[in-house]
Amino acid sequence: MKDPRIQKLAANLVGYSVDVQPGENVLVEMIGTERDLINAIIEEVGKKGGNVFVQLTDKTVQRAMLKNATEEMMKTWAEIDLNRMKQMDCYIGIRAGENVNDLSDVPEEKMKMYNSLYSHPVHSEQRVKHTKWVVLRYPNASMAQLANTSTEAFEDFYFDVCNLDYAKMDKAQDSLANLMKRTDKVRITGPGTDLSFSIKDIGAEKCSGQKNIPDGEVYSAPVRNSVNGTISYNAPTLYNGITFENIKFTFKDGKIVEATSNDTDRINEILNSDEGARHIGEFAIGFNPHILHPMKDILFDEKIAGSLHFTPGQAYEETDNGNRSSIHWDLVLIQRPDYGGGEIYFDDVLIRKDGIFVIPELECLNPDRLK
């Protein structure tokens, strides 16, 4: 018997998130063993008159490939998949791996090679810029463990989050996006954090289910050399299978001049990947009312109610500050009282305190209004 929640999610992904049109080519990439959602998506693409293509990826196989990869192999792999991506109009990426740490023992130089030679051209440059795309996780026991819940409880949470009325959220985001477009100076304060920068003339983009599921953020980017001060992130984060905690950055004229964490040496290796890795490519404010706590899964964590993320690396084309990098690492600061509180100011006006929007035009984005 089909789970109606899965069919609803598939219909939302195909009809709302990527809005498949007759004759369009749709690539569905599944990392993991889940099949019910793929089959439902294939059905929904067929109803829309699209052409569906499927790639199944096993993380343990990918790990073996990466550990044994040569530069020549990586370039050929990228060439093959880039050619396929160029023929796609839509991309739906589903991540359902059993172990988030599967890639943790791949040598750092191999991961850097993968990020720069494969992921950057295939995904950052082609898929992100030239297809209608959406990326999501799929619930399993591994994710439930990260969220510290039972598998059944996590599935209920997952479908509440992913089948939210994103069209309603989209309208509510207009006020924040418009305000960010008018804003020059931003200041962020809180425990271990006092950061200032400009977003003047960068623009702002709404995220309401068209690119990520779950969703719930509006993003911009700082003027590249305007960032000064310190930020202390309080959500743990995964990068290439390694968990980082207690990350703290100090900026001078846009550049991260000091970086510490539970693994200070390794985080500085990542930030030394290229010149743009020590500059910020994204500033975003998160407000999904159902997501309250980090689970080391950035597709959820960057949407946490009362959070923001401040991202070293590549800028998005829609809010381009000129920063270029092979990395794009979303790092999250939660400002609700249970995480220490904090404030966001736009042009010296307090707009959010302790995770709650405090000016009338933004109150529509508070949890009680979005559920």
TrEMBL record:
Pfam families: Peptidase_M29 (PF02073). Belongs to the peptidase M29 family. InterPro entries: M29_Exopeptidase, M29_N-terminal, Peptidase_M29. The keyword Protease applies. One of its GO terms (molecular function) is aminopeptidase activity. Its cofactor is Mg(2+); Zn(2+); Co(2+). Gene3D superfamilies: Thermophilic metalloprotease (M29). This is Aminopeptidase. It comes from Paenibacillus taichungensis. SUPFAM superfamilies: Thermophilic metalloprotease-like (SSF144052). Keywords: Aminopeptidase, Hydrolase, Metal-binding, Metalloprotease, Protease.
